[in-house]
Amino acid sequence: AVNCPAGQYQNDSAAAGCSDCPSGSRSPAGSQSVLNCSCSVGYFLNADVPVCEPCHVSAGFFCPAGSYVY
Questions:
Q1: Is the pLDDT of residue 60 over 60?
Q2: Is 42 helix (H, G, I), strand (E, B) or coil?
């Protein structure tokens, strides 16, 4: 496994490189999943895509707890 730098992750132990976190998010060094990428305040990680999407509080959507760090 590759020890990825902050802002990247590796979710496949057979892969030789790291993948970037979605735009607008960060991860700690050594991350092994896109779920380790945390979006900016007011955004949440849609891991299916993966992208940081805005939390539409007025539309009834709320950021899941722990979905952002900074």
A1: no
A2: coil
> How many other C-beta atoms can be found within 10 angstroms of the C-beta atom of residue 65?
6
Whether 59 has a pLDDT exceeding 90, the answer reads no
Tell me the CA end-to-end span of the chain in Å, nearest whole number: 28
d(CA 25, CA 52): 7
The predicted model gives 7-22 an average pLDDT of 87
Nearest to 11 by CA among 45, 40, 46, 35: 35
Pairing assessment for the beta strands 43-46 and 51-54 based on DSSP bridges: antiparallel
Residue 62 pLDDT more than 90? Answer: no
What sections of 1-70 are H helices per DSSP?
none
- Specify burial of residue 58 (Cβ count, 10 A radius: 0-12, 13-18, 19+): exposed
